[in-house]
Structure formats: structure tokens, C-alpha cells
Amino acid sequence: MNRDAIVIKESDNVATALHDLPHGQPASVGIGDETISVILVGDIELGHKFAIRDISRGQNIIKYGEIIGRATDHIAKGAHAHVQNIESLRGRGDLS
Asked: Number of structural domains, the chain?
């Protein structure tokens, strides 16, 4: 099966698009040997992230098994996860 996006670790809550993905379409997301389908609620550009499950405001964003940021707003399953709804937790200097 062709995959539209990938998830590296099962703990990840975002996937990375392998090509441009249109709003309203199901995306085939590879997680290891499994594939899940996620209906996209917005256009997702190549290389960008989208939520593979609902992410609550304040919840960690996990990509490649690592915390890469925190949700600044609710991110619905299938929604674009980017600077408009994620704050970085890396290299800030104000967090311990």
C-alpha cells in the first residue's frame, strides 16, 4: 500500500507528509508495519506535520519519539500541526 505520511515511533502524535495532501482526503499513515487512515481537515504540504489523534492544548507534540513542542491550542485529528498551534520547547533557555 502506498503511504501518504509516516510516523517513526508509536508514541508519536503527529505524522509527516510525504507529498502534498489535500483537505478532506484520507491520508494513509505508516506506523511501523501498520497503516492507519486519517481524514485531513486542511491541506498539508510536503514535509509538514498533522495530528494523527486529537491533541489537547498544553499537550506535548511528539515526533520521532521526541518531544518537539507543546500545543498552544487544541489540534484536531487530521489538522495541520505547525507554528500556528505549536510552541517550540527546544533551545529557548527559559525552560528547565
From this structure: 1
